[in-house]
Amino acid sequence: MSAADMPQKDENVIWHKHAVDKAFRSEQKGQRPALLWFTGLSGSGKSTVAGALENKLAELGHHTYLLDGDNVRHGLCRDLGFSDHDRRENIRRVGEVAKLMTDAGLIVLSAFISPFREERQLVRDLLPEGEFIEVFVDTPLDVCESRDPKGLYKKARAGEIKAFTGISSAYEAPKSPEVVLKTDQHAVDALVEQCLEALKKAGVIA
Ligand SMILES: Nc1ncnc2c1ncn2[C@@H]1O[C@H](COP(=O)(O)OP(=O)(O)O)[C@@H](O)[C@H]1O
Ligand SMILES: [Mg+2]
């Protein structure tokens, strides 16, 4: 949804500032909130690496939440399809939810193909500087297609899925992501380590 399509805010709806705030909740949890935004082709490894990273963070005693693409389409975004408008609205809602979760002090991980630079920028712009950490799961299309964990590439090649990212719809690779993961060159454990290093460097975890 573009700004022009957005319903107007009611001027009588006023933000209420509460005493237990983001800083308090973050301190309580011993972490700086952040949103790790995994982006990449279907089958690139977003869910696999984000899930393994969340396990590791939980082991370290951190408070996290993983928003996974397919899962939100069962509830929060069940009314949305895959048109450009609906894809954008899907990401906008996820961004707003992730923002609430960072306000709750959480380290949020998200795993959405999110193929368009503009939609990723939209989420980046929702958050304070430095809280959006873009993780490009940079797996070549032929590798993703040979993995085909959900059989979707086979269907897309047979013309059964229209506008499938990488086949019949564009994927715009990030220009300056904070993290680049090469899943065809490194095992999941090493990729998790790479993410942990990035979180330390960003001051999210100690
Ligand atoms: N190094 C790796 N990192 C991540 N996934 C890998 C790796 N090597 C093989 N895979 C496999 O690739 C597939 C990635 O699927 P998935 O995580 O569901 O992708 P996505 O969420 O991006 O669609 C899984 O079957 C996973 O086991
Ligand atoms: Mg996935």
TrEMBL record:
<dbReference type="GO" id="GO:0004020">
    <property type="term" value="F:adenylylsulfate kinase activity"/>
</dbReference>
<dbReference type="Pfam" id="PF01583">
    <property type="entry name" value="APS_kinase"/>
</dbReference>
<dbReference type="InterPro" id="IPR059117">
    <property type="entry name" value="APS_kinase_dom"/>
</dbReference>
<comment type="function">
    <text>Catalyzes the synthesis of activated sulfate.</text>
</comment>
<feature type="active site" description="Phosphoserine intermediate">
    <location>
        <position position="114"/>
    </location>
</feature>
<keyword id="KW-0547">Nucleotide-binding</keyword>
<dbReference type="GO" id="GO:0070814">
    <property type="term" value="P:hydrogen sulfide biosynthetic process"/>
</dbReference>
<protein>
    <recommendedName>
        <fullName>Adenylyl-sulfate kinase</fullName>
        <ecNumber>2.7.1.25</ecNumber>
    </recommendedName>
</protein>
<feature type="binding site">
    <location>
        <begin position="40"/>
        <end position="47"/>
    </location>
    <ligand>
        <name>ATP</name>
    </ligand>
</feature>
<feature type="domain" description="APS kinase">
    <location>
        <begin position="33"/>
        <end position="182"/>
    </location>
</feature>
<keyword id="KW-0418">Kinase</keyword>
<keyword id="KW-0808">Transferase</keyword>
<dbReference type="InterPro" id="IPR027417">
    <property type="entry name" value="P-loop_NTPase"/>
</dbReference>
<comment type="pathway">
    <text>Sulfur metabolism; hydrogen sulfide biosynthesis; sulfite from sulfate: step 2/3.</text>
</comment>
<dbReference type="GO" id="GO:0000103">
    <property type="term" value="P:sulfate assimilation"/>
</dbReference>
<comment type="similarity">
    <text>Belongs to the APS kinase family.</text>
</comment>
<dbReference type="GO" id="GO:0005524">
    <property type="term" value="F:ATP binding"/>
</dbReference>
<keyword id="KW-0067">ATP-binding</keyword>
<keyword id="KW-0597">Phosphoprotein</keyword>
<dbReference type="InterPro" id="IPR002891">
    <property type="entry name" value="APS"/>
</dbReference>
